[in-house]
Amino acid sequence: MLIGITLMFTSCVTNKYFSKNVNASEITEIKYFAPLSYVSLIEKGNKSVFNDSLSSISKVLLDSVIRNNNDFKIEKRIDVNGLKNNLKVNNELSFLIQTIMNA
What we know:
It is a single chain. The protein has helices at residues 2-11, 52-67, 83-101; strands at 30-33, 40-43, 47-50, 74-78. The protein is of the alpha+beta class. The chain has a two-stranded parallel ribbon. The protein is elongated. The two termini are 17 Å apart.
């Protein structure tokens, strides 16, 4: 799932900021936003209902996978200060993901 989201993010980014002159060995650290997770369960009548417990567990597991991955130089999670700013960033990231998923 994480790889799929990463591929989606990289596919919607323009190439104007990429430089072919940077070697992987020159990258000293990669920062990331806290994972987003929205898990819904299918209930009677084929209705999906958001499950906050599974979503929270999923966020923790995704964060653990990212932090413990030794294939990339992931050093730090980007923590947004303040509830208002955090909600804004989460909403914008969620909108981006939904836009990509519906494209």
